[in-house]
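User: Show me a protein chain along with its predicted structure.
Assistant: Here is one chain, sequence first, then structure tokens.
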Amino acid sequence: MSDLRVPNSASGQGPGGRRRSWAELLAGRLKRQKYNPERAQKLKDSAVRLLRSHQDLNALLLEVEGPPCKQLSLSKLIDCDNSEAYANNSSSFIGSALQDQASRLGVPVGVLSAGMVASSVGQVCTAPADTSRPVLLTVEQRKKLSSLLEFAQYLLAHSMFSRLSFCQELWKIQNSLLLEVVWHLHVQGIVSLQELLESHPNMHAVGAWLFRNLCCLCEQIETSCQHADIARAMLSDFVQMFVLRGFQKNSDLRRTVEPETMPQVAVDVLQRMLIFALDALAAGVQEESSTHKTVRCWFGVFSGHMLGSVISTDSPKRFFSHTLTQILTHSPLLKASDAVQMQREWSFARTHPLLTALYRRLFVMLSPEELVGHLQEVLETQEVHWQRVLSFVSALVVCLPEAQQLLEDWVARLMAQAFESCQLDSMVTAFLVVRQAALEGPSAFQSYADWFKASFGSTRGYHGCSKKTLVFLFTFLSDLVPFESPRYLQVHILHPPLVPSKYRSLLTDYISLAKTRLADLKVSIESMGLYEDLSSAGDITEPHSQALQDVEKAVMVFEHTGKIPVTVMEASIFRRPYYVSHFLPALLTPRVLPKVPDSRVVFIESLKRADKIPPSLYSTYCQACSAAEEKPEDAALGVRAEPSSAEEPLEQLTAALGELRASMTACMSSQHDVLSAQVAVISERLRAALGHNEDDSSAEISKIRLSIHAPRLEPREHMAVDLLLTSFCQNLMAASSVAPPERQGPWATLFMRTMCGRALPAVLTRLCQLLHHQGPSLSAPHVLGLAALAVHLAESRSALPEVDVGPPAPDAGLPVPALFDSLLTCRTRDSLLFCLKFCTAAISYSLCKFSSQSRDILRSYLSPGLIKKFQFLVFRLFSEARQPLSQEDAASLSWRPLYLPSADWQRAALSLWTHRTFRELLKEEDVHLTYQDWLHLELEIQPEADALSDTERQDFHQWAIYEHFLPESSASGGCDGDLEAACTILVNALMDFHQSSRSYDHSENSDLVFGGRTGNESIISRLQEMVAELELQQDPSVPFSHTPSQGHFLFGIFCRRLQALTSGWSMAASLQRQRELLMYKRILLRLPSSVLCGSSFQAEQPITARCKQFFHLVNSEMRNFCSHGGALTQDITAHFFRGLLNACLRSRDPSLMVDCILAKCQTKCPLILTSALLWWPSLEPVLLCQWRRHCQSPLPRELQKLQEGRQFASNFLSPDAASPAPNPAWLSAAALHFAIQQVREENVRKQLTKLDCEREELLVFLFFFSLMGLLSSHLTSNSATDPSKALDVCAAVLECLEKRKISWLALFQLTESDLRLGRLLLRVAPDQHTRLLPFTFYSLLSYFHEDAAIREEAFLHVAVDMYLKLVQLFVAGDTSTVSPPAGRSLELQGQAAQPCGIDNKSSSFSAAVNTSVPEKELLTHGRGNVKIPTLGHAGAMKNHSCPGHVSARLAMRLHSFCQSPFPVV
């Protein structure tokens, strides 16, 4: 230890600079002064004061003589980490030194040691710089304090410590003193809290200090601090001390301290905390703010576990009574008139949850009699805070049913006192209490209307019918009128007090005043319902809505009594306006009358016989019902659902659910009526909690609409349904702890019926949220409860409406049991395990609950999809389940293992899997897992989140396909050993999956890739294996004539699926067809190329059946949806040519076979060759390498033609002289067209001048391909060619054609019968492009030669035909109605006999142009907007806008043509 010295100011310097000890200094002073006893005593007192001041007491210890003392320090002792023996030795040594020092100084050793320990405590409490308002010690501080307290305990044990001096020293460091230090001092017996508090000279200051620290402590507890357990223990000990000392009967007179100080401090601190909390709630404390956390924690001290051992004394009860008084009386700001106006806002549901929680904790300690008696005493003796008084009344009647009668008795006494001596205070109190209690509904307290009638509606009323009491009553009621709610005024008017005739004026005056007030509030007394709840003080219901409720209640009363309700009879006489205008129309709502008269029909007939329905109104009703029978769809008018604005608190529903759980286990099997009554209460409170009117429950729901991907609930519905579901799960667990499901009685079925009314949509929506979106996070009790609920919903499936969930479910509505199939997904590891748990629980519960039922009934209680998913999951997750089961493997089923908290789901699933009843159930055809079912479920799996590894998944697929489903019979959902059938089912499943929305995750980033994700790559791999195996099964040595002629089975699948799709050019049909074809193409690209063209070719018939199928697919489908501008995509083109070379290279003469097949392609499928030309730069190296690997000869001649075509196009666009175009001309034209598209726009015109030297046939084909390019530039957003460039190319080629007088009109009249052009070009161009040829025709109109109409005999015919088709495109988007007859084509020559081959359409067009468009206007407008003239029989099109240059330019050409000598027919 380091030597500690006292400061120089205390020691001084001796000769030579040596520091003198304290004893030497004192000795020197004594030598210089004469001995004086009085002075000696003063010196001793000064020394004591010095020691008790803030000096370095550790340094004083070092002044003790002796070498060991120079190595001692209290701070070192505190920081010491050595053994306990060392600490004991140090403590004893310091204690000895303290005694020596105290004896020398003449100071009591207890005083000296107390000051020293207090100073050390102050050093320990020094807070870190980053800590604000600290209450708790840090770990290091707590360690130091522990060592210090051990030393203090040693001093106490040896009578060397003064508690009083220590307390006084501690208060000197009050600002740095931490509350935890005070607690440790109290707990370890150094100094009690009472001693410490009573030693403070200022009681108010110590109370304020404790209040601040307790607030900080509560806040730290709620913020989950690191040492929350210590903080809670501190708070509990402090509260126990304050309650015990502050509310004890007698003080401890044996103590020497003043007995009243501690109780006063305790009460002061507790009162400060309560007032702080109440003020915070009144000010509107913000949720989760620091103040909110403090209040929440402090209110928690009123629970039993915080009071601990003192709970057995009387102090807590006195403390709770005192607290209740403070709650009711603190800050009495509101007057009684304010309470009359505002008490509607102070119901139990609208009171702050923290305050209602405090009320409930008070209810635990105090009995209902004590609570009501205390409330009465406070109201009689003190000013009160009306809001808290009335909210307390609401809490009483809601939480304590016994309090209802106590309140009624108290109110009766108040009323008796009020009328006995005309006490206005008692009257006000009684009315406020009754109205407040009635706000909580009839289940908590009688309605205000009933109470008012019972109190004043008879001669036995409180008013006694004397003038004095009547004046007092009506004066009181009149004073209330300005503050009254309309509801209460209506009660007073409709149920007035009984008044003798001689005092009738008092009543009439009041009623007049009340009606005037209602008129000011715009509320009509005549529109009030017969059964309207006048006690709710809620918003006024619309007359029509209230009438619907009145009808339902009247029918209900009639059904039970068999008589017309008295209320209805009275209304027909005394309230006839409402009865005739609202009640009867609501009762006589037209509907389809049932064959067997129901209660409503009988009730109407009873009123008719009693002459309570006007004959005309009854006749109209009968006629309307007859009309409804003829038009059943109009029966929906009879639905009488109206929303209600009344809201009942959810706490009532909670209380009802709690009562059911408390009574359920005792009466599960025998007392069915008890359960039914309690469930009826729950149903009523659920209706109120959801805000539904009573008539809502009678309105039938035909179909429920549910959004699986975005289910939403209103907050009120969310909380109410959560209460229901939570209660169901808790009840199931409680019941299962007592008995198995088959002996639990009907509680679950009864409970489920509460959800089958208007609450069913909200329940199903919440189930969707839980099962579909939060399933893996649900606990075992939730899974069990919801699974059992699903079974009971299936039990009542016939009474439940269908559910429309939209995609991915079918378009038709789903029954509620099948809804769970859509909610349970099998995609990730978590969802797989959750689905397994749910299916296991549901099936196990069903088999246990209905074990005595037949197999058909069991199957009806379980959704087939649920059973299939269970089979799929067991097969997938448990390899042991893949083995065949023997009879010995059959296991018994027990519900109890699932109920236990540590449920082993794998064991439970395997136990269910081997259960005899379940195995028998699987023999049913509709619940057995088929190969197709397995594929649909497996395709949903996401491999990156799968429960199986890649290897495990591959093994599972191999087992499922080859060992399980392939050998299984087709009757059992297998393939009968047919591998081709297995592939067919797999491909169909793939296509179905990708066409459905299940393959897309409905996210913003999902794209039309293979299913929107990579979830089916493993299945694709299995398809590749199976197809490859089928390819190997073909024997290439078998002659072609003996091979099957139907081709590959895949093309048959594609053909059948395409035939099933909707045909037509609508956008939806086109997109669906395009998506289907894209999937076909992707599947083909994943399979061997031999699928496209076969594995080998025969010289006798080179085009195989597979080639024919592929060519047909290309010509009929891919040409329209998978090509761009006359070419297929690169991937399918390369795939075909690779397969072609592979197959040809196996023949005797590969080169000859390639030439034969490609030569056939020119007529059968020319699109293959144009595609090869487009992609030749990337295709040539692959084909060349593949060919040279097997043959040393040059490429086959037909492939060389493709080379030459590309080379010709390259040379043509080069600056050098162009070589002649090779044959065929159309291939060279296609190659040139593709090459032109890659040239910069400014070079096109210059290069195209070389066309003058090319063959006519080449120019015609090039013009057609250029037209296709022009259309592609407009139709394709990512086209490489700009529309202006494409138009320039077309114009350049057209100019060359016209310059050389080459006819080109036949390109706009192509037909399949035209063997020269039509059959070839129509198989290259998409149908959409050929339909849009009129657009290209009129796009080039301004480039036509002026004499074209004269020189080209067929020009006018083509122009008119193109114009009509263009108009038809503009109007209807189709040209089929004006297409020329099949087989008709325009010859390029030989039209001399018919110089103007114009039909009636062209004649109408020409006449319309000549008569409707003046010549001057045509010549001046040019490309301006011109209205299309009326075209009579050519189409019912009048005054449709169209690009004006079309009609204007054509009219100009026709005008010049019509001035020629040739007549216009």
